[in-house]
Structure formats: structure tokens, C-alpha cells
Amino acid sequence: MTDPIRIANCSGYFGDRSSAAREMVEGGPIDVLTGDWLAELTMLILSRIRAKKPGGGYAGTFVGQMEEVMGTCLDRGIKVVTNAGGLDPDGCADAVAEVADRLGLAPRIAWVGGDNLMDRIDELVASGAIGPFDDRTPLSAEGMLTANAYLGCWGIVDALERGADIVITGRTTDAAVVCGPAAWHHGWTRDDLNQLAGAVAAGHVIECSGQATGGNYSFFTEIPGWGEVGGRARFGYPWAEIAADGSSVIGKHDGTGGAVTVGTVTSQILYEIGSPAYPGPDVTARFDALELEQLATDRVRISGTVGEPPPPTLKVATNRMGGYRNSVTLGLVGLDIEAKAQLCEAVFWDAFPYGREELDDVQITLSRTDHDDPMSNDAATARWTITVKDQDSTKVGRPFSNAIFQTALASIPGMHGLSGGPKAADPFGVYQPAAVQRDVVPQYVHLLGGETTMVDSIEPSGGTPDLDLPPSSEPVDGPTTEAPLGLLFGARSGDKGGNANLGVFARNADAWAWLDHFLTTERLRELLPETTGLAIDRYRLPRIQSLNFVVHDLLGEGVAASTRSDAQAKSLGEWLRARVVPIPRDLLPD
User: Fold this and answer.
1) Which of 343, 354, 498 is nearest to 425 (CA)?
2) For the chain, what are the domain ranges?
3) What count of other Cβ atoms lies within 10 Å of the Cβ of residue 459?
4) Mean pLDDT computed over 241-249
5) What CATH number has the domain spanning 320-430?
6) Angstrom distance (rounded) from CA 180 to CA 504
7) What angle do CA 5, 266, 582 make, to 5 degrees?
8) What is the reported pTM?
9) Per-residue pLDDT tens over the stretch 412-469
10) Residue 24 in 3-state DSSP?
């Protein structure tokens, strides 16, 4: 049996803490340093960077971090694996090589490609090898800016087996940068599905950096030193110590801020998932089979994750040009708010040279952030927002802004702007997931100064196990008290394209039994009226006392195009926790 491998994460997205790589390398013993840079929106951002700087569609911040830690990593034998290569992993590898040469170092650098499908997207669409991910939205190559398949871990494994010290990939799954080093270290094969599933679970937990150590956590006031300024207020980032059987221990370097608890790990397991049968290119990991155990302070064990064969297709992240948009928010203050909103809209359409039906999309919202008998100007203010979209930038540019601001003296009393102003329209992109047949997407592993090998995308063998999940328990009954859900339950929410996911977890068996019966799909619609009329999927994860909901189309066309104030649904869970419902008194804290 091989010893566990400790894999530390230093980045959860493009823009994460720049000092984290040095903190993870110098803060304690690790075997591998990883980083995830590629949120769904990031590929669109990188396409804009590459348009200005050909070959530069990668995370330049990673290159800067390598300048700080490369020497130490080589001295200590720490491998580096990252998807910071984005759209140009070869360009990123060359940039890292330039840093190494300047520092007088000679690491073996590999980059993994094959994910970029743009050069053959027309052929793939025409042949039917690629299509819509959910069978609802037709897929077209027209106007497509990026198309990248989510690759798995075996290209990374190949690079490490060939002696690479630094492995840079393009679009892989977030967990692949963890799964790859674990599979390499332990000698797993493609058919070791339970072990791979365990590594995927560990990778999913640590891939968002500080979210596993107390960041964005519902019960943040329980995190030690949460309100302090200084080192304890800066969350340490997580590592996963993965054993040969795929089980893992999640932890962080001693003496750093934050905490690793069953609660923080549960919260992250629920982040941005759909079904608890979590599909990936290497394995479908059954998150509803895993169990969590607090071993010690800042040490949580994940065990029991079950692996099933992956789907026959790979997910593809595509981005296309969506058009142009403009937006303005006005403050409506004092009395007669509804009437003032009506007048704002009438004045706008009277001044705007196009009719509503001549625009691709119009969204008008009134947020009643005002209070009765307000004690401050802000407390007297509601927010009226109008957002317009169209393929023609001239429609939604200056004519839109002028329609608002040229009528400023002939509109509502107290007229003032809160955001937006006279300006040209902004371009926006649209993210659309797709699915491509796995056999047409091999991985290519390039060693700088050496040979290139091809790694086939082979579907492993294996069946679908019977998990025998625990049934619902009888809920606590008795007298109730009106109280916020958040007194008992934590939540974590996020985006999956145009959909939102909302995970809710209990912290004891009685609270879970009540939640499992109480929070139905119908009840969720009552508590969150914005979900009315939308399809909602509900999933149970009884072994971690959790529910997960997927709200379809809440975010419209997705993050880059959404007109919702919280375009990524990050606050959806906290909204639910604020809702007041009748809760059995015996469940509530004294």
C-alpha cells in the first residue's frame, strides 16, 4: 500500500489570493500544489485577453506565483498541477519556462491539450458528434468564441509518469488536477472507480480554496477569529491527504485562519452540483454515498464515496457573442413608490426612439429596499432598474442612456441615479454547455523540449452499484415557533450555466428528519417566489443530512448574460435561510 499523498490547493478562480501559493508551499509539508483557475465565465474572459494578446489566453497570475515558489518546489520535490493554461496552455508553459530560465532553474514542464475544439467545431456539429448538453437548447457553431471539453485526469497522470515537475492544462474538470496526482501516486487504473470517486470528492471540496476552510460559510460566526483583523481573519487554504483506497482527510496548515469542520466540508460538497451522482470524464462519483467524520481540530475524513462509470460523453464549455446591453438604476425615494416606478417607465418609453418589441430583451425590476418612517435617506430609497439587450449596439447605447438622463427634470420627484450613466453599450457573452462523444477528444501531453504523446479517452468498465440509501425518518412534532430557517440550517448556492443550485444541510439527526419532510419543492417555491414557474429538481443526500435543489433557468442565459442582481446565485441560500417558518420548538436552540 502506498502512503497517502497530500495535495494542497492555492487557487479557486481567476483572481484568487496571489500569496496563496507561497503560503501553501512554505506553511507545511505538501506533496503537490494545485490550483483551479477556470470558472465557467473565465474562458470568456480569457478569450478577450487573447484577442488583445494572441497566445496570452492563460492565467498570468499563475506565472507570477511560480516565480515565487518554483525553486522551493523543486528543492522539496513538490509537483505542481494546474489548469491555469486556459485557452493557451502552451503559451502558459512557455511563460513558466521563461521564468525558470531567468531564475536559473530547470524544471520539466508539460502541458496537456486536446480540450480546445474550435478548430473543428463545424465538423463536430455537422457530424452530430457534439450537441446540446440538456437536449433543450439547439447548438450552433455560429458566433462561437470558445469550445473546450472538460478533460479528465489521465493526461495529467501521463505527464507525471514521464517525470514532469509542472503540469499545465487547459479546460479540465476542477477535480482532475487533484485526481490526476492521486491516481499517479497510487498507481490506480481507469477501472478503480471507487478510488477515483474518492479523489473526485476530495478535489471538489478543496477546488474552491477558502470555501472549504470557513469562507462563505453560513455559520461564519463560529469560525475562530472571524472578526479579527490580521492573520486569523485570513483563511488558510485547504489540502487533501488522499489514501490508496480513495478516502481522504481534508485539512489546512496549522496556525492559519479559518476552520475545517464537518459543516464547512458539507457546505462545499453541496456547492454547484446537480444530482448527487456527480458525473465527470473519469468517473461518476456518488456524493450521496460518502460519509464525513471530524477526526480532530481542522481534520475531516471523507470515506465511502462510490464510483460508477462516467457518461459516454464529455461536457463542453462553449461561449458565444450574445449581443450588447445597457442598464440604469434609479433611486425612488419616499412615498408613492409604485406610482413613481410607473411614471419612470412611461417617461422612458416616451423618450426612447425604439419600441419595447424592437429590442431583443427588456428587464424592469423594482426592489422595495425602502422602509416605513425612514431614519436615513438610504432607508427611504427603493431601486428601479431597467436593462436592455440587443444585437445592434446602436439601439442600446447612447439612445438608451439619453432616454433616461435627458428627461431627468421631467420625471419623478427626487430623481437621482444609483448606477449606470451615459455610455456606449457593453458587449456580453453567453455560456452554453454542450456534450461531445468522448472517443473524438483524445488528450495530448507535450513535454517542453521533448516528445508528445496521445492519451485516448477510454470509457472504463464497471456497473451501477446499489447504494441502499437511508430512508426518511419520522420528523420531530409538537408546538412550533416562527423562526428563520438559518437558525438551524446552513446553505450553499451557486450557478450551473443558466441554472442555480441550492444545497441545504442540517447539523443533527432530528433537524435533518424535519427538513427532509418540510422542505419540498412546492415549499421552496413558496419561500422563494422568484422560482415560481421554473422547473426544480430535488435531491436527497441523507448520509450528510442534506438536500440539493437545482432551479432551472433562474439565471437566464447564464452568468455573463444574466440580468439578475445576483447573477451567480451566490446569495440564494442565504435568502432561504432568512425566511421565517414554523419550526418545532424542541429543535430550536435555547
Assistant:
1) 354
2) 5-115+150-311, 320-430, 480-587
3) 15
4) 98
5) 3.30.70
6) 30
7) 175
8) 0.94
9) 999 898 887 667 888 888 888 999 999 999 999 999 999 999 998 877 877 777 788 8
10) helix
